[in-house]
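Bench log, entry 3. Co-assembly request; chain sequences pasted below exactly as received.
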Amino acid sequence: MPEEASVWDVFVTAASVADALHQLAGLQGEGRIIAGGTDLVLQAQRGLCPSRAMVDITRIPELDRIETRDGFVVIGATVTHARIAGSPTICSQAPLLAQACGSIGGPQIRNVGTLVGNVVNALPAADGAIALFALGAEVEVADLDESRWLPIAELYEGVGMCAIDPCAQMVTALRFRPLAAHLGSDFQRLARRRALVLPIVNVGAVVGVYNGCFTDARIAVGPVAPTPFRASEAEQLLIGQPVSDELIAQAAVAAASSARPRPSLLRGSPEYRTEMVEVLVRRALGNASAQAVAA
Amino acid sequence: MPAITCIVNGTSTTMDVAPGELLADVLRERLGLIGVKIGCGEGECGACTVLVDGLAVLSCIYPAAKADGRQIVTIEGLQDDRHLHLIQQAFVDRSAAQCGYCTPGMILAAKALLDLTPNPTREEILTGISGNICRCTGYYQIVEAIALAAERSREGGM
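Structure output for the full assembly:
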């Protein structure tokens, strides 16, 4: 398909974050950051990306790191899903994120696609983002004037709508607190097959248990609303209460009542998906609390 | 038009690529490496899989400009002058190709897997080729062929 092959007119490589932001500014609204491009190339081919100029950030060394800094696990903007899924740091400090990134696409997509790209695309189905919501992650947004950390939920304005200005800003990193010993986590995903499909429902859960009672609970659910969301009513039911299967079942019902799925030929009816939210939240809470109790 | 230099199947290659050109098109149309198959053209089927710095990637959605400075291996780069690569030979011996269209991508996905995991479980083989779709064989022979290649590799090649 040679006539369709030119998906954009300019492709430049940035040497640093400052360079990338200057190049974006110089492109005066025509430019956009590209990392793996696994979504962006398709969006461009389908005419869904208005930008005709790409600024490649994958040669910027400092963005390619997973590190522990100031008590946070920090993941740079060009770190791929495969790196995260295989990272000893992530597997030990945030295992649900390794599970989530390991379930995205197939091996080839995971080798190229990035977790930050998963967030910037702002799709409610994004597995990596669901895990980040459950981790209470923050996102570093940089422009020419400053860089600041925002709670991840602030980036989400609707289906595929990210709050950052893609022509002037970029996300440089993600960060979250490593899961302490009394915390357990789990990621659950329901899909028609095990690779290369978006999830019907996905759930990330982090819980803390001390003296047999829940001390912390964070439950993230997608794609059953325009953005990933935290099932806060279900979280509140758990905190301070003794761990039991009955309580977990009640919390799962509460989480399902927060779901607002649309009918979808690909993902099933709202009734089915709401019921599956309950099932997946119950499983995720069961696994996460078993880990927390065992710790 | 940016010029890129990359090592394709062991040979250093410099060429001008259009900003929006994709690696699969460059490999097929410029270099004649038509073992790179374009199936879906949108990163869903794995037929266009090539290795970039040893990692399996989908060349149909990989901007060619990103390949600058990288080592690329296509199916044409696996065999030496006289012998098939042992994964290729195992595919022949286990009749793991029917129409053959998915085979180059499948073999390169297998190579990426075996380079990292020389002694894979059946589950690891299934995960390793989970980004590649075959519409003929039902995967059974493909999984057997990859297991055979791993076994022969452990025994010191063929």
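Residues 3-77 of chain B form a domain with the Ubiquitin-like (UB roll) fold (CATH 3.10.20.30). Residues 43 and 61 of chain B are 6 Å apart (CA to CA).
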